[in-house]
Each structure stands twice: as C-alpha cells, then as structure tokens.
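Final report, closing paragraph on structural work. Over the funding period we assembled a curated collection of sequence-structure pairs, and we close with a single example.
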Amino acid sequence: MFRFIHTSDLHLGKPFGRHSEEVRGRLRQARHEVLGRLAVAAREQGASVVLLAGDTFDQQTPAPQVTRQALNAMAHEQDITWVLMPGNHDSLAASELWQTIQRDKPDNLLLALTPQPIAMANAYVLPAPCTTRNPGRDLTVDMDQPTPEGALRIGLGHGGIQEFSSLGSVAAEGPSGIIAPDRAAKAGLDYLGLGDWHGQIRVNTHTWYSGTPEPDSFKHPHSGSALAVNIAQAGAVPEVTPVHTGGIGWQHIALELTPQDDCTTILDASLPPLVARCDTLLRVSAQGRLGVQQMQQLRSTLSHVAPDFLDLTQDLDAVLLAHDATDLEVIDPSGGALRQTAEALAARAQNGDLSAADRRVADTALAQLFSFVAGADA
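Its predicted structure, as stored:
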C-alpha cells in the first residue's frame, strides 16, 4: 500500500499585479503557507510523500527569497518527503533556478529533473519534467521504461491532454505537446498525476489533474485542494480523495435579476459566512432587468458589505434598467426638468443602438440622480 499527496501549480512568487498591494501581499503569503497545509493534509491522510507535478514556481527566475523560503518551509516538515518536478513555468530551461535548488535543498526534498525512475519504498515515480516552456512533444512517452516486477508505478507529468485554450487556460501547450489521455494504460501506470490545469479533473480511474492547492482566480470552482491517493497494490484502482488546502477563497456570485426581486435578500443569501469574508475575494456579476430604485438598492448593499471582504469587485453592466411611473414620480412629481432628464437617461440606458459603455454611463447617472433626490428628501 502506498499513500501520497498529489498536487501541482503552486506558482510561488506570482505577482497578482491587478490587485492592490495589500491584497497582493495576502495572496502571495497564502501561496507560501500552502506548503505547510499540504504537509498537514499528508499527515491527516496517513501519507508521508507529497508529489509536486510542476509549476511550483511562477517564474523561471523567482526572487531569491521566494526560492529560499520555499525550501525552508519544506525542510521544516521533516517527516514529509517532497518530490519536485519542473513544469512549464519553472522548466529545466531555468538552469540557474534548478542549480540553486540542487545546492540548497534539504535532505527531504527529491528533485525529478530527468525521466529516470525515483525509488520510494515499494513504488517508483516516473517523472516527465518539462524541458522548456513549450516542449513541443508528449514527454510522458518515456514512462514506459521498466521498473522492478510488482512495484507500484506512479507517473508525474505536466501539460494538457486536450487544447486547454478552448477552456480559457493560458497555460495550454500546442497540439504537438498534448499528453495521450491513455498514457497510464500504455505505460502500465498505477496512477498518473498531472499538473497544468488549475482545476481538478478526473481523466479516468488512473489519471487525475490535482488542480492548484491555493486558488489564484475565479475560473475554477473546485480549486484550493489537493488529492490524497491510496494504492493498495499494483494493478488496483487507486483511491483518490480531494482534500482542502486553500487559504484564500475566490467566490463568484452570478445573479439573474427581475424587477420583482428583492436584490438585498437574494444577495445576502448568496454571500459566504461573515467569519470567512476577510479571507475571500468576491466577484458579483448580474444580468436581467431592475428598476431604478432596485439598482440603487443593489449598489448600496454591495458598498455596505465590501469592507467585509479581502476584495470585492462587481460587474453590473449586463443589467438593463427598467423604470416605471413610481420611479419618475420620486425623482420629480411635477414633471419638470429633473424628470425630463431622468426620462432621457432611462431611454439612453435601454437604447440597444448605443455601446455598452454609453448605456452604463446613462444608467449610472440615472441611479445617481435618484440617489441625490432621495437623499435630499430625507
């Protein structure tokens, strides 16, 4: 029996340039701390080995402190054996990086820098390290090399089994680099652990993408976990269990709204628990139709809850503005200049011949006009 943790795509040192400095710092720290959470997950699952299937580092030349602190974190978990394989972001072309790691690595870190099998108790790890960012061929073909009879055979690869670009991945390899989806069967593997895709995918009973152990976008709803793998004996179907490892949550709430909805109630029901919000990046998008007062209520609610979160972004561009006599009566019961302005803005906000940006400007102006009038009345 062989138990281990399969993970990949830690992307240590990722800059997260689109976020504020405070958020960037929290995200980078969470990525560093995931090494400790992986060790905890291994112990809880009765495993002493963590296999890292590529892209442990986000760049070929990470800052020296990123590399050193990662090695220190792995050294601290003395009872865990780490197996580190280059991916496309930290490929073997990053010779200085791997020379530094080879020189400074702790004794409990094994490097998979060649396709040679790595002996581990009653198992052999058969790695396919990325030679360059885009190797241009299926590197897992070398996994068919022999190992001692009866030993478990664990493949470790990095790359796509399909054109991940069609799924929106920026890490996809070209057609010549696609990994054969039946590689485990062809190479007689008991398990093939893959990296590159940041969400968890079960390819078949013997082949899995682990996904990233620390989420880095809203794209993958099941990110932030690793895989605990248990193989009873050679030829047996592996027992694979997802284990949570993420520190920062990325939650996307998509709302479908109508003029009859209570926006505050719908939004509140979708929000994570209060205690989890400080470690959550929240993205709220909406579509449908809302009245002027409803839109103002939605914006006000979002503004009110925003400080609860590590970060909150909103996209309400797809919401069409609906207005009725009640809205316009609130703005200007006399039918004077304010009401005429409101009617003109409402017409522009719903004019399909205008660009989305122009409609959004009119929508925002109408909501602000309503807010101004409502505030003056109060």
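Residues 166-175 have pLDDT under 50 and may be disordered. The radius of gyration is 26 Å. We thank the funder for supporting this effort.
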